[in-house]
Amino acid sequence: MLSPLVIDTIGSLVAASSPLVFAGIGEVLTERVGVVNLSLDGSILLAAMAGFAVAFVSGSLLAGVAAAMAVGALVALIVAYGSIALGQNQVAVGFVLTLLCADLSSFLGMPFVRIPGPTVPHWPIPGLVDIPVIGRILFNHNAMVYLSYVVIVAAWWFLAHSRPGLQLRAVGERPEAAYARGIDANRLRYVYTAVGGAFVGLAGAAYSLSVKIGWSHGHTSGMGWIALAIVIFGGWSPLRVALGAYLFGALKSLGSILQPTMPHVPTQVFQAAPFALMIVALVLVSGEATEGAARRRLPALLPVRLRRTITGLLRGTPPAGLGKTFQPD
Amino acid sequence: MKAHLAGRRALLALVAIALTFVSSTIILLLAGANPLEAFGHLLTGAFESPRKLGDVAVAAVPLLLCSAGMLVTFAAGLWNIGVEGQMVAGAVAATWAALAVPAPAGVMIPLTIVAGLAGGALWGLLAGVLKTYGHVHEIFAGLGLNFVSMALTNYLIFGPWKPPDGATMSGTDPFPEAAWMPVITGTRASAIPLLLAVVAIAAVYVMLRDTRWGLTLKAIGLNGQAARRMGINDRLHVLVAFAVCGGLAGLAGAVQATAVYHRLIPGISGGYGYLSQLVVLLSGLRAAWVPLVVFFFSVVQVGSPRLELRMQVDSSLGGVLQASLVLFFLLVNGLGRRLERRRE
Amino acid sequence: MKIELRDITKRFGPVVANDGISVTIEGGTIHGLLGENGAGKTTLMKILSGYQSCDAGSIFLDGRAVRLRSPAEAITAGIGMLHQDPLDIPQLSVLDNFMLGREGGWRLRREAARATLRELCARFGFALDPDAIVGALTVGERQQLELVRLLSLGIRAIILDEPTTGISAPQKALLFETLQRLAGEGLTVVFVSHKLDEVGQLCSRATVLRRGRVAGEVRAPFTADELVTLMFDQCLERSPREPACLGAPAVELRDASICTYRIALHDVSISVCAGEVLGLAGLEGSGQSLFLQACAGILPIASGAITVAGREMTRQPYRRYLEAGVAFVPAARLEEGLVSGLTVREHVALLGDGGGPFIRWPHADALAADMIRTYNIVGTPHTAVHELSGGNQQRALLALLPERLNLLLMEHPTRGLDIESADWVWSRLLQRREQGTAIIFTSTDLDELVENSDRIVVFSGGAMSQPVNACDITCEELGHLIGGRRP
Lengths: 329, 344, 487
Hints:
Chain A is mainly α. Helix content of chain A is 70%, strand content 0%. The radius of gyration of chain A is 20 Å and the shape is globular.
């Protein structure tokens, strides 16, 4: 049986990964509609700072969260506008914004460095928390973490089973076909980039108000880049991306867990391992070889439905319209 | 016609500069600081003493080297975000040479330079191979490798290369004197790196303008398929471009280790790799403009610490100024092009 | 629904794609729209289906004037278009594609849509799996899906753009049967094609376009001959030419097969000699491009063998073909032949002969200026190639070719060129012929084929005919061969 220490560790892992879940799913929405928001690392920082600052000054957590989401949405909209309306390279604008928002967060956040501030209160769900093992892992946290569960399910449902979600997917894959069906591709791109950006902002708030309370320079330590990577690794699907977020969180924490058992392995191997694994995973996922091979080698005896689900799970290609602009005649 | 175009470009540049100052002023006011005083420190801090001017040169060296390298990869249509990691790889290689090979200065200096070039080139090549054969986008290959390189540095600093009295965040033991780049008296700047940097940017300028290889890269970047039809082996050239850019970045990292810090420290690349991307974007991908932009960015880099000392304002304002200038430049340019299309 | 187009005019820069076209299409009929490439059919149908706006003219549906500003508005008005490459989303499932664009609430009612889809498919005998990914379907099946989707949206007129390219024979039969049924039920069908036999088979009426204008209209029953006469201009007597001085075979194919997703060429055997001009005739997409690309080394030969200038070239990489003296000039000049963004002198420098790593700009400039003068290119060495007009781009492409070639392959050498440029291009090409270069070219201009070729082959549905001597054939006969009539 799993010891209480292990259970609690896994639980804290789940909680610590919630910002990454928000960021990853937000970026999934943005990229599925065809826009790359490279500014994640910077906008998470800025949103985290803004969220904490506003919550501290106003005393209201909700205001802080709202401010963080607004910041995330605003930055994402700059990327969208710069690319759709002004025809600039999405990657260039996103990259510049990464640096700008990071520096802005350091600059404006100075008065708030290492000040204790409001925290999302701990709220174990009565009843559910008593379920053996799972209860303590999943339901012994705060509202933010529970929100991350909701977001995973909601995003999955939205993309797979709702009409607006279908339209979103269509715009991301082939905007001219969406246009032919009366969908305003560019308008949807703006909308979902902003929505995705809002979730990215939420990630920032989740970090500074729930996971690593407070603010300091470079507070979120590279989370944005990791989020971008898990979107690819997770094949642009909310469920896989969430899995990737938890996996990544686990890998980071695993370092401190496994270290005592493997004293001869240097710490930095654990530090670097997630990124090295990310590259390996990306090679596997980006290579056309893998997807094609999977499709060919799966025995034809497997029922068609199952075969399709498996190849769907292995999907590694980005939305076909990602990064391309669309102008109707 | 050409004059009209130049005039329009100048106007757009001025608008971008104006917007930058306006937005920075607003941000400063938000932080409760005096804008004029802040700009004053940022822009004049670099000129208050010969030592400070030397610091401008120190900051300019990695910027020039990395920007020169990035121009090469950008010409081929590649976005080599991995420059940061390539700098680190070069620094690591140079550190190895400095610590492991006892030799007089006459041999050490060139050895560290070659080591830096080789280390960075290798790291760049890795990103290139991931792209051409692994189909991993160079942004993610670059980013992943950046993080791996930093972890590698930490491992070396806290492991095999730790100082005998114990590992700290200050890095390795200082290099033997023979590996220290000679400084210009009264400053912290070294002549050799500066010379190398100037030669690098000049060489890249000439290369892109006047050599067959430069033109080949441009063709690959503009229309890979047509280039292939002409018989150009685009894969090979892409790999070489990554190696060249990595080499120059590696040299920058080696210089940071041997001339500035005289040791390997965590974060030896100091964000210069990312900053050089801003430089290249602001220069409109043209080598001729890079020195001017590098000078401006270096001045701001040197002036920023003063903000913390004199005004209790975070030095990251310098970064804000640099990044917002590039952002406004991109946006204003886009706006200008859009207005022109409307007019047609 | 009765459709009436009156005086439709549309210009793209200096090119007049549609010049005062008026067509009336009666409701519940299948109306054919014919014309060679560039005649204006696609533009006209894009205007009718809401993808383009016209510069002048008006559209009347059942006597009511309408403005169609977008494809969605056209569908609301009752007109749907089935594109040659169906405008669906290959990454989504059949069912999702079917549901996309329909009205409805937030929730996707998959079960209801599934039932509707099944019902419609059953009605027409289509076998579509709702959960299949569209990208894995054949072209014919994608068409069926699009057809069923448009019908479910309540359209009363449908435009089909070259629907039979790339679908199997049974799918074609099913399609025709479906169209006839639908027309019988009152749907108006516009059948855009250049396959004369199919138009004759299906349509009760046909309008022929030529050079942006209506060349004529025919009513059933009509023959392929009548259509041919309307589609192709009268051509002149072929000017006498010296017989070709033929040398060793420049390129030889033996039982070669070339396959792509859309079309395959099977068991092709032919030998083209040095100094010979071979014209490839046929309707668009019949296999000529495949042949040309295989000779260039761009497409691999799936089976069989190919030799160039006596060298075995099967399965050799592209650069070996370049070394063997083969050059390919594509029809997509700016996308595949030239590097958009570079100037003329930069192209000269790029392709220039050795001379070390440094470019000698004065030398390149002189070469470029020379080239511009000799080839009459309107531009300077500093002009960017994307700023040159189409005709000048073609001249530039020709000018950049190596001096001596064993085999020159040209895709539509005079497409988009005015008469003077076209004549000039052929004078240069014939010069090369005299030097001993073998030339193979594709064209849809019968005049050009008969006038300049030594031999002509006709491609039809992936099969190549036996070569015919150009001096033994007239334009009209060639037109009939292309139209499908056996000689």
